[in-house]
Design a protein that fits this description.
It is built from 13 helices and 17 strands. By secondary structure, it is an alpha/beta fold. A hairpin with a 4-residue loop joins β9 and β10. Bound molecules: flavin-adenine dinucleotide. This is Electron transfer flavoprotein subunit alpha. Belongs to the ETF alpha-subunit/FixB family. Pfam families: ETF, ETF_alpha, Fer4_10.
Length: 396
């Protein structure tokens, strides 16, 4: 690091800063030819000073007083699809808002979103904040983060929640950084501390071995992303309505650094993995990509959706859209058939709440057998064709 500040000015999430104390040891260790000695008396580059001034002004106030009020759910809407976790969060948000005694609001940022507003009311929002603008047609971090941040600064909600989807995991850290507040990612349980009324944000930690409950005591808003399919879907009540607050998008197309050249939809089956009722999932036991047709045939015989472990994604045999687990999708199908999967904790957290788990593995000690309702101990290359033949016979 040569302390030029160039990284600070180009970071799209405004997440970097250059501080004299932190920079000094790094500069001392650096190759004398590559970086000059850091001198704390020298002024920081102008770009960095400007950045610090802007962000000091933008920093969110610390908690206190009663300015910050309300539970907000950020509704994820992209290319005509509403992420169902948005409605799960409205159900959960209702409980939190009732304990605190505040209002429950939805936030919709996108383009041509009137039908989404209706749905937000139907799922329980009392008020909906909307930014409807062509620059928000395709998801991009900068304009989405700017839109949400602008609304938060103006209306000051106490809690904001979003789904831990690919979009939520992308945009929420950028929002938290702009607001200089904390964010707990991938929560599986939320609650309100009865005394302090702080949001209790619980998530697996240390590879899923413990559950950690995290509080954000001194900054506002309190922010969490929540895994899809862990909160119950609330009842949809047709005809409910409430207040709509419309705001303008502050960023113009010229100010956005990324351009969408083309939109290529993903594999339709894997997009709906989190809603699939029957899943056939494959692990490294399949040994090679050329053996995948074996499990594809099994999935077809049941009308099931195909999924996999991270091992299979890392081997390049299937795309990440299909991955179940901690860093993939959480699923809760009626039937989950695990073929050649060891049952690592990071995989189990994404599927162990399935109604019925059937595991095929040739290792009697495999962890997957501990969560399976039915275990078939055997060589998958023998067992899977037998299962496929039997399902075809019975289901035809
Ligand atoms: P393996 O563990 O190699 O298991 C293969 C299994 O196949 C074995 O049990 C073996 O007995 C069996 N087998 C072999 N041959 C046969 C045969 N002929 N017949 C029957 N059975 C056979 N993993 C995920 O899946 N999802 C995640 O989201 C995820 N996130 C992670 C996040 C982090 C931070 C880390 C560190 C890891 C993560 N992992 C995740 C990786 C995880 O720890 C495991 O490495 C991975 O799940 C193992 O994949 P696997 O079961 O396919 O492979």
């Amino acid at each position: 690091c040569k302390e030029t500040g160039s990284c600070v000015t180009v970071c799209p999430a405004n997440a970097l800063s250059l501080e004299a104390k932190a920079a000094a040891p790094a500069a001392k260790k650096a190759d004398a030819g590559a970086a000059k000695e850091f001198n704390a008396k020298e002024p920081l580059p102008k770009a960095v000073q400007d950045y610090a001034k802007t962000n000091a002004a933008k920093s969110a106030p610390v908690a206190g007083g009663d300015v910050w009020s309300g539970v907000w759910i950020i509704v994820e809407y992209n290319h005509g699809r509403i992420a169902p976790v948005s409605w799960e969060l409205l159900g959960e948000g209702r409980k939190l808002a009732d304990v605190i005694g505040c209002e429950l609001c939805a936030v919709i940022t996108g383009y041509q979103v009137d039908h989404v507003i209706r749905e937000a009311f139907a799922y329980g929002a009392e008020k909906v904040y909307v930014i409807d603008d062509p620059v928000l047609e395709n998801f991009r971090t900068e304009p989405y983060a700017e839109a949400i941040t602008g609304l938060v600064r103006k209306y000051q909600p106490e809690i904001i929640l979003m789904g831990a989807t690919a979009i939520g995991r992308d945009v929420f850290p950028a929002v938290a950084t702009r607001l200089r507040t904390g964010l707990t990612a991938d929560c599986t349980v939320l609650g309100i501390d009865p005394e302090t009324k702080l949001l209790q944000q619980t998530r697996p930690a240390f590879g899923g071995n413990i559950m950690a409950t995290i509080l954000c005591r001194s900054r506002r808003p309190q922010m969490s992303t929540v895994r899809p399919r862990v909160m119950a879907m609330p009842a949809r009540v047709e005809g409910r309505s409430g207040e709509i607050v419309r705001e303008q998008q502050s960023m113009t197309e010229d100010e956005i650094r990324t351009k969408v050249l083309e939109f290529i939809p993903g594999d339709a089956k894997s997009i709906f993995l989190d809603k699939a009722e029957i899943i056939v999932a494959v692990g490294l036991g399949i040994a090679s990509q050329k053996n995948l047709p074996l499990v594809e045939e099994l999935a077809d015989s049941l009308g099931a959706t195909l999924a996999c472990t991270r091992g299979v994604v890392e081997a390049g045999w299937m795309s990440h859209d299909h991955q179940v687990g901690q860093t993939g999708v959480t699923v809760r199908p009626k039937v989950y058939i695990a073929i050649g999967i060891s049952g690592a904790i990071q995989h189990l957290v994404g599927m162990e709440t399935s109604d019925y788990i059937i595991a095929v593995n040739n290792d009697p000690e495999a962890g997957i057998f501990r969560v399976a309702n039915y275990g078939i101990l055997g060589d998958l290359f023998q067992v899977v064709p037998l299962l496929t033949a039997e399902f075809k016979k019975r289901l035809q």
